[in-house]
Design a protein that fits this description.
heterodimer; A: about 290 residues; alpha+beta; 8-stranded antiparallel beta sheet; 3-stranded parallel beta sheet; 9 helices; about 35% helix; about 25% strand; globular; B: about 120 residues; alpha/beta; 4 strands
Chain lengths: ~290, ~120
Amino acid sequence: MTEISISDFDSLSELSIYVAGKNKAPEWERVELNLSECKFIEPRTLIGLTCLVMEGIQRGIRFHVIYPKAPWTNKYLHDIRWANFIKENYQQPRQVELVSEAKYSALPLWRVSSEYMDDYILQSKSFYQRIDRSKDWDGLENVMKELLNNVYDHSNSSSGAYVLVQYFPNIGELKIVVADAGVGLANNVRDYLLKTQGLEVSLEEAFHWAFTQGKSTQSKPTNRGYGLNTVATFMAAVGGKVSCYVSGGEFVVSPTGMTCSGASPNLLGTLYVLSFRPKALQDAEVFGMFDWD
Amino acid sequence: MPRSLVCLIGIKLKYMIKVRDFFGESGDFQKGFALFQAIRDQLLRGTPIEIDFSDAGGVSSSFLHGFLAESFHLVGVDAAKRLLMLRNVSRGQADMLKKYISDYNHLGSAATPTA
């Protein structure tokens, strides 16, 4: 049995390399996933871990989890349904149930397939309304749809998107993590530019390209390169931040601009983190007639 | 095919559709394209169309590719703007529509429309 310890986001690399190295294990292979030293698990770590575990299960790995010693962290993993989620043959219920604690409230971990996207978005509405009913949440819904459509259209992930939405009332911040176990945004762009234009681009150039208005690796009517630019525009408008992680690269779009660094562990696919303060959203308002100009 | 309400406004017929009733959440290209197909004949006839967005939630760019870009392509941007009356649009929906139109004007139709 192999033992892999997870303590924070960076520590996902070992598991990622292990899972990526398995096509299909000859027999069920056991991995002991040691979370015992975790005192706090960030949403991005949790979603990254979930992607790796779910992909590992598909590749014939059987996980045995040692849960955190810290009682609060242990409870958190159960509250947001992670402990159920990673069980083999887990059947996800149709109804998304809200988790509410003193330190945070959350929409639990959810696998959102393309067929289920509208249903999920609809159910998440009530969660957002609980945070602040006076704000307009439709802009955030637009963003969620863009990210999810991006996963379905470009990631080539067989399992859809994994989503966690968490609100921290003490700092007034909402964090949304969306991830897939697909080909990875930067890889997809680099392959596309190489094949279609003979261009070799760096990781940073690939990220910039993907977030630029009108750039898409597909030319179907559904893909015209508006999506990620819409995400970045919305987040900038609310003073928030979108971080996009792929293996070995982090791209951040914030009100101060766009930055790229190598600060990411090895991951499968792409992981997005949106963070912003709901207070910064515009007040809810309905226009009787839309003014085209 | 969605239900529709046809009423008399002066001497012109006006076609009305509520997005929420017929298409639920306006998430993807197929739903946007279904909306376009529902109003296609009215656009070609030059009939004003009232589209009610109340409670339809966020509108994705994929949805707007299916609905708006196809409408623009069919009758032209100016005619589509004149014929399409979008009612009960939330602030988030309005921001998305404005960004989409600005992107469309800037980039044009980056892909071959289906219609």
